[in-house]
């Protein structure tokens, strides 16, 4: 039998239900795994073993719901939460010196939902500072290493989440995705990551980067686990004014494996120069597998795709410049004390509290919003956003979902793009369109390039999470990529 830490969430859940293991056994096994590999992987900003064991003991007494006696789906299963998502019992730093000492005093709604199911928190996930990046190298504390090749990045910004799940430290993680931060690291680490429809999961307690784009979502070892975690975190929340009231389907029972008659669109603009040939080959082969399962494939065109990246980087940076104005040393986090005036204090707090990439983005965003440039940049980007949305609406008349690569290349070497922001941003080309349109997308492992995992992205119309998960599930049942684990 595979070791405990190699199993999926669903597999561990069965062992717990059959009482073959206890929540404490599972938590101890995860903590041992963290002891063994964390030095090399660096997926966590904080780990609290005592808290995890306490939670495991508490879960042991209540694996089942009162009344119905049904088991809590996530009870007793250890996970990691990205450090941009507030937790009452552990610091929430956003991987920034600005919030190094910040203790929120409350749990984010998504976290509270997991805790109400007796989930076990191992610790908080490493990430790019304030979720700004695609490699987890802008973390103010340390980089995270890709478990498939420790010299390479895990992707970002939820790199800690994807690496912890790939390395067998956590059974699943919650990440956040503004322009790809769940899907791209999932792709680079060979795990599953889903960005929900904007508004489906509450953002209450998620530290804001770009509020019109930010969404919390699951990172898991396979699609069934993803369906299970998603079912637990969705739902309307009066604490988030952008939260939507949508039906709350049981995503797990929707996994029928039947994709016959589904129309899959392959957008021409996603298979162009710049995509690694093995990545393209793996995704095209995955499309053939889905076709073999009875889906029909149509070529479609999304001509605004090349503009999505610029549109995203103007909107996200404009919003971040406004959201991060609150860090002035008076209200939250770091406060520079040696200053002659209040203004000097604010300046120094921001100078020393933020890292280089965050400052670059605040300056660019402030510029795009300033008088004289607002119309040329921000307003124009808003208009392009509308065009992108309309184009997706049109294409979803022709097909039920789109299949694309998640990222143009597999994991790149640590340091390779760190000092070349434009090159770093270009890697987000396939993930930002769905973000700008607010529609759901999932990344599922579909092969390898240079011994490194490749992910395919499945994008669908608003609230099509059930369909996306079912396509991913059907694909997984026909292939074995999701079963492979990194060496060690
Ligand atoms: N890589 C993108 C960026 O740097 C997306 C980040 C995210 O989704 N948080 O903005």
How does this structure look, described?
This protein has 488 residues and is of the alpha/beta class. Among the domains are: 4-256, Amidase signature (AS) domain (Amidase signature (AS) enzymes); 305-383, no CATH class. Helix content is 38%, strand content 13%. It has helices at residues 9-17, 23-41, 49-60, 109-116, 159-166, 183-189, 223-233, 277-292, 305-323, 342-353, 356-369, 375-398, 421-426, 432-437, 465-478, and strands at residues 44-47, 78-82, 120-125, 172-177, 192-195, 215-220, 263-267, 296-300, 401-405, 441-449, 452-459. The chain has an eleven-stranded mixed sheet, with helices on both faces. Helix 7 packs antiparallel against helix 15. The longest helix is centred in the last third of the chain and has 24 residues, at 375-398. The two termini are 17 Å apart. Residues 131-134, 157, 177-181, 209, 316, 428 line the site of glutamine.
Q: Layout of helices and strands, plus pairs?
A:
Layout: H1 9-17, H2 23-41, E1 44-47, H3 49-60, E2 78-82, H4 109-116, E3 120-125, H5 159-166, E4 172-177, H6 183-189, E5 192-195, E6 215-220, H7 223-233, E7 263-267, H8 277-292, E8 296-300, H9 305-323, H10 342-353, H11 356-369, H12 375-398, E9 401-405, H13 421-426, H14 432-437, E10 441-449, E11 452-459, H15 465-478
Parallel strand pairs: 2-3, 2-4, 7-8, 7-9
Antiparallel strand pairs: 1-3, 4-6, 5-6, 5-10, 9-11, 10-11
Helix pairs in contact: 2-3, 5-6, 7-15, 9-11, 9-12
Bound molecules: glutamine (GLN).
Glutamine is lined by residues 131-134, 157, 177-181, 209, 316, 428.
């Amino acid at each position: 039998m595979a070791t405990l830490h190699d199993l999926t969430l669903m597999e561990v859940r069965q062992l717990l239900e059959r009482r073959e293991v206890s929540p404490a056994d599972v938590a101890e096994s995860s903590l041992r795994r963290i002891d063994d590999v964390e030095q090399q992987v660096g997926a966590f900003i904080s780990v609290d073993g005592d808290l995890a064991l306490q939670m495991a003991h508490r879960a042991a007494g209540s694996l089942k719901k009162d009344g119905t006696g049904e088991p809590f789906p996530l009870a007793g299963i250890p996970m990691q939460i990205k450090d941009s998502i507030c937790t009452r019992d552990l610091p929430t730093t956003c991987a920034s010196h600005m919030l190094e000492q910040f203790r929120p005093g409350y749990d984010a709604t998504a976290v509270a939902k997991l805790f109400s199911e007796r989930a076990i928190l191992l610790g908080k996930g490493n990430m790019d500072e304030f979720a700004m990046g695609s490699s987890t190298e802008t973390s103010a504390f340390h980089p995270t290493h890709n478990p498939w090749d420790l010299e390479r990045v895990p992707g970002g910004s939820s790199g800690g989440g994807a690496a912890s799940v790939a390395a067998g430290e956590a059974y699943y993680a919650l990440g956040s995705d503004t322009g790809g931060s769940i899907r791209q690291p999932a792709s680079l680490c060979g795990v599953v990551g889903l960005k929900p429809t904007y508004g489906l999961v509450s953002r209450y307690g998620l530290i804001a980067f770009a509020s019109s784009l930010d969404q919390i979502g699951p990172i898991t070892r396979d699609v069934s686990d993803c369906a299970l975690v998603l079912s637990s975190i969705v739902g309307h929340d009066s604490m988030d004014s952008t939260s939507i009231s949508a039906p709350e389907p049981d995503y797990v029972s929707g996994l029928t494996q039947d994709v016959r008659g589904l129309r899959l669109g392959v957008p021409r603009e996603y298979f162009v120069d710049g995509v690694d040939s093995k990545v393209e080959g793996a995704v095209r082969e995955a499309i053939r597998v889905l076709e073999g399962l009875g889906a029909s494939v149509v070529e479609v065109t999304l001509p605004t795709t090349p503009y999505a990246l610029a549109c995203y980087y103007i909107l996200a940076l404009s919003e971040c410049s406004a959201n991060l104005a609150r860090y002035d040393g008076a209200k939250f986090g770091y406060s520079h004390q040696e200053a002659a005036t209040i203004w000097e204090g604010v300046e120094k707090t921001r100078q020393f509290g933020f890292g280089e990439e965050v400052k670059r983005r605040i300056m660019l965003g402030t510029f795009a919003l300033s008088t004289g440039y607002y119309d040329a940049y921000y307003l124009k980007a808003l208009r392009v956003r509308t065009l992108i949305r309309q184009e997706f609406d049109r294409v979803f008349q022709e097909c039920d979902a789109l299949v694309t690569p998640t990222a143009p290349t597999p994991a790149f070497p640590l340091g390779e793009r760190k000092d070349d922001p434009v090159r770093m941003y270009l890697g987000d080309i396939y993930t930002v369109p769905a973000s700008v349109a607010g529609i759901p997308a999932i990344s599922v492992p579909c092969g390898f390039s240079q011994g490194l995992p490749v992910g395919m992205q499945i994008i669908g119309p608003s609230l099509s999470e059930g369909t996306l998960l079912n396509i991913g599930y059907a694909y997984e049942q026909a292939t074995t990529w999701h079963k492979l684990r990194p060496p060690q």
